[in-house]
Amino acid sequence: MNIYQITVEDANNQKISLEKYKGKVMLIVNTATNCIFTPQYKSLQYLYDKYHDQGLEILDFPCNQFANSTPGTPEEIEQFCAKTYNTKFDRFAKIDVNGPDENLLFTFLKLKKGGMFRANLKWNFTKFLVDREGKVVARFGPSVKPEKIEKYILPLL
Prior knowledge:
Blueprint: E1 7-9, E2 15-17, E3 25-31, H1 40-51, E4 56-62, H2 74-85, E5 90-91, H3 104-112, E6 127-130, E7 136-140, H4 146-153
């Protein structure tokens, strides 16, 4: 299986094939609207604004698994992100990133950058960097600010 064979749901529950992003550099993030790391939305938008025209896509997957940090509806999440951080990158349906109901995309990402035991995500704002060929090239923990990832994105563009 490759990443482009995975289908996810957008915020309107429409099926989206990740093939849509083929040939793009993807930064895939599990996010939260009420978390110590929520201000990272600002840096994510900065990267998106700066590099989107060169092929960077940021894929935002809200997750409520950690301390009930994303309790809102898709509409509330969208309104919060747009109003507070002026985000313009693609946002998807709320998902689980660990456990029996974890989203297939995050199972895939963890297999590629988590070892044979699929190291679980420890918190919101874990980031996975995927190159233009769909290879998962890096995993960054929640405390790694998006602006620190810029140096890893540049060679992939």
